[in-house]
Amino acid sequence: MREDSIGSGTADVIFEDEDLVVCIKPRGVLSCADASGKKSMNDLLAPRKVYPIHRLDREVSGIMVFAKNEKTAAFLSNADGFVKEYIARCEGSLPGEGEMVDLLYHDRFKNKTYVVKRKRGGVREARLSYRVLSEKDGVSTVQVRLFTGRTHQIRVQFASRGCPLCGDRKYGAKSNGEIGLTAYRLTFPHPSGELLTFEL
User: Fold this and answer.
1) Euclidean distance between CA atoms 137 and 183, whole angstroms
2) Quick check: helix, strand or coil at residue 78?
3) Residue 147 burial (10 A CB sphere; 0-12, 13-18, 19+)
4) Can you give the pTM of this predicted structure?
5) Are 127 and 172 in contact (CB under 8 A)?
6) How confident is the model over 64-83, as a mean pLDDT?
7) Bridging pattern class, strands 61-67 and 51-52
C-alpha cells in the first residue's frame, strides 16, 4: 500500500480525464465542502470544479473518485459496479472471515452512529464482508468490502463486536492516534463502459 500523501494535506491525483478525477484523500480533509469552512477536497482539487460521488470520514484517508461535470456525476451516482474496499486495523480478535449485517441509526446532532435492534425512522440496514489478514499484539489487520455506505459504518459495526478501530476513541478504542482505516481499493464503471480499478 502506498503511504505517500495519505497524511500530507495534498491530494495525489492518480488518474484524470475529461470526465472524472481519481485521487487520494488525506486524513483531516473533508470529502466535500460544507458550511464549516474546514479544508475540503474541493480546495485541494481546485481550480477544477468537482462533484463528489461518495464520501470518506474526515479522519479517514484513501482513494476517491470525483466527477468533473454533471452528466458524469449523474452516471456514477446511479451506476452499478462500485466496489469499495478498505484496510482496517482494529483492537482485538475476529473470526478469520465473515459478514456483518446490522441496523444503524445516525444521530446527526451527536454525529454518532448506533446499532439498533429494529427498524424505525432514520434506521437503515448496513452490510459488509471482511477477511482477517494478520493479527499481532492484540491488533487485527482486516480487509473490508462495503455493500452499503452508511455514515461511520465500518467504525460502528466493528466496535459493536468488541473490536473498535485503532485510534477511534469515539467508538470505544483504547488506543490513541490516527483512526485505523484506509480506503485502499476502488472499482467503478467509467462512462465509456470500461471498468476501472485503482489501488494504493
Assistant:
1) 23
2) helix
3) middle
4) 0.89
5) no
6) 95
7) antiparallel
